[in-house]
Structures are given as C-alpha cells and as structure tokens.
Amino acid sequence: xxxxxxxxxxxxxxxxxxxxxxxxxxxxxxxxxxxxxxxxxxxxxxxxxxxxxxxxxxxxxxxxxxxxxxxxxxxxxxxxxxxxxxxxxxxxxxxxxxxxxxxxxxxxxxxxxxxxxxxxxxxxxxxxxxxxxxxxxxxxxxxxxxxxxxxxxxxxxxxxxxxxxxxxxxxxxxxxxxxxxxxxxxxxxxxxxxxxxxxxxxxxxxxxxxxxxxxxxxxxxxxxxxxxxxxxxxxxxxxxxxxxxxxxxxxxxxxxxxxxxxxxxxxxxxxxxxxxxxxxxxxxxxxxxxxxxxxxxxxxxxxxxxxxxxxxxxxxxxxxxxxxxxxxxxxxxxxxxxxxxxxxxxxxxx
Length: 350
Ligand SMILES: Cc1cc2nc3c(=O)[nH]c(=O)nc-3n(C[C@H](O)[C@H](O)[C@H](O)COP(=O)(O)OP(=O)(O)OC[C@H]3O[C@@H](n4cnc5c(N)ncnc54)[C@H](O)[C@@H]3O)c2cc1C
Ligand code: SF4
Fold this sequence. Notes:
Blueprint: E1 2-7, H1 11-18, H2 51-56, H3 65-71, E2 81-86, E3 90-95, E4 98-100, E5 107-109, H4 114-120, H5 142-147, E6 150-151, E7 159-163, E8 167-169, H6 180-185, H7 191-201, E9 207-213, E10 221-226, H8 229-235, H9 249-253, E11 259-263, H10 265-275, H11 279-284, E12 285-290, H12 299-308, E13 316-320, E14 329-337, E15 340-347
Helix pairs in contact: 3-4
Bound molecules: flavin-adenine dinucleotide (FAD) and iron/sulfur cluster.
C-alpha cells in the first residue's frame, strides 16, 4: 500500500522556533547567545590559534575542506579528521588522533596540514572579490565604474552594478528550467540543474560535483559526481541539512578531470581560498555555481517534525527538504511501516 498525506500547518512557526542562523554565538552550544553563560573571552594571537579553536568558537561552516586536507597523503588511508553530525544536527570535523603536549600533558589533536587549513577554512577566511578594485571586471572603463549601474549594450535588462553588501553584480535575471521534469524535481525552478545539464551536454566539463541524499540516511547528504541528467536529478533540490561538499575535494582533483562545482556560498569560498595555494583548482574546476543561502537549519528542527508526525528516522526511505513541484513540499518524507509505504508532505510555507 502507498499513501500520501499533505499537511499545511505552520512550518513557518517551526522554522522560527528552531531555526539557527548558524551565527557565531549559538554554534556548537545548541542554544542562542542569550542562554550561553558569559565566560571570560579567551585571547588568541594570530599565530596561536588552532583548528580546534575555530570549531570550538563556533566559526565552522561544516564544509569538510579541513578533512580533505588533513587526510591527504596519509599512509594506509589513515584518517586524522572526519565529518560527523554533532548536536543539534550539524556536520563538524572530529579529531581522531591526539598527542600529549610535553609542556602541560594535555591531549592536542594531530592535524596534518593545519597551517594550510587555517589559511583556507571559509569559517575564518572570507574574501570579498573586487572590494578594493570596486569591480570584478577590470575591462570596464572608469566612466562605467563611476556611473555605478550600467545597462549592457546587448541584452535588455542586463545591469552591471557594484554594491557594498553583495559585491560586484554582473547581471540579475529571472529564469527556470524549460524541462518540466527538472522544474518539478528541483528546489526553485531548476536553474542550477538545467545549467549543469547544459555544461555536460556541451562537453564543457567531465562531471558536476554536487550533493544528493544519502541512501542509507536520507536526511544526510553525500557527494555526487553527476555525468548525466538522471544523476543530476538525484541531487536537484535544496538540502537544508548537513552537507559537506568539500570533504574529499583534493582526492577528486587528483582524478585530473574537469568539473563544475555546486555548493553553498561558504563552500565556494573555501574552494576559492584553496585555489590560491593549489593550482589544480583553477585547472580542473571550470565553473562554480551557488544557491542563495540564508542559513543552514539544524537537523533537530526536522527531527522534531518527524517526531510530531510519529515517523521514526530509521523508517525513512526518502527525505526531501524541498522540491517535488516548485516550490513543492517542504519537507517530504517517504517511510515504511510493516512493509507498507507512506509519504507525508508539508506544504511550502512561504
Ligand atoms: C542551505 C540552504 C539555504 C537556503 N537559503 C535560502 C534563502 O535564504 N532564501 C532563498 O530564497 N532560497 C534559499 N535556498 C534555496 C536556494 O536558493 C535554491 O536552492 C536555489 O535558488 C537553487 O534553486 P534551483 O532550483 O536552481 O536548484 P536545483 O536545480 O534544485 O539545484 C540545487 C543544487 O544545489 C545543491 N545543493 C542542495 N543543497 C545543498 C547543500 N546543503 N549544500 C551544497 N549543495 C547543495 C544540489 O546538489 C543541486 O545541485 C537555500 C538552499 C539551501 C540548500
Ligand atoms: S574547513 Fe570547513 S569544515 Fe573545516 S573547520 Fe573550516 S569551515 Fe569547518
């Protein structure tokens, strides 16, 4: 038997009650700053902080880049770092090996390549392209730059502008995937999936590096290297939960194949930081595409939703945070009970 139920009560309320903006204050404490007991702030000098300090101070975005760098080149696939879900439901790097500090006997995490990691981690290295030059495009002449906004000569509605908040903007367009399958399955009309498909069919890249649901644990995400439309469709949707697309980026670059990278803005920031130190990034990553991202909600918010609807996480067969008709259900859970399949979906609240 297969039964689908739609409910439309207020996920919006759920969102505001539980959503975490991943701000510095609440991270890794599971609570907002107003509830965190005031501690004397630790002092860090530029030279003294470690990756552990980054994570413990709530600056980690969960991208996975440090895991890739720390485990790179380890003998016998030895692992030093691993991404794991920590309360209240975020991916964070976990330190697997420790050594004793000879000075005080404390255990200190062993993190190969730590100084490079600290230079590229997007939690502490945010670059603002064009901030000093005021434009990303050095070909623009000074008149264009002075005028601020300029309609492009060839395309109606094309505007170039430079804003302090968003940085240089080449163009703002409205679009949607013309393929109805893509539009139905995707998060917000399928622009990213359609562009990904175009890059593959026009042979501009060998594959698209993005994420999709983990088949064993559908609320989590795994890296997906798509080479065709059906693979792309597995990833199309917004995954408002733990996803670490840079978790094995060095290992993927070693394949020496070209690709387009899809990720959250912080993931792309990490990749661009890495490009300054690793020539293979610019050589093999031909395109980067990102979603507009207001926050990464904690998994606990969706676990509460399951609980309220008496669905066991272990019974999930599929979990979509969004999609299946634009804007579609948000969320959508398919689960099995005593051999029967059921689906529960919440109407998109906005
Ligand atoms: C964490 C998060 C926060 C968001 N916040 C906002 C917001 O504040 N306001 C708003 O209007 N929209 C928000 N969105 C939705 C987002 O803007 C749309 O997903 C985007 O417009 C792309 O739509 P699309 O139909 O082109 O994507 P699709 O064609 O469905 O493609 C989406 C692509 O993004 C990849 N992806 C999905 N989730 C993740 C993830 N967690 N990490 C890395 N890659 C991922 C998929 O693999 C896929 O390739 C958010 C999405 C996410 C995942
Ligand atoms: S590199 Fe990414 S996963 Fe590692 S600490 Fe920085 S933000 Fe977190």
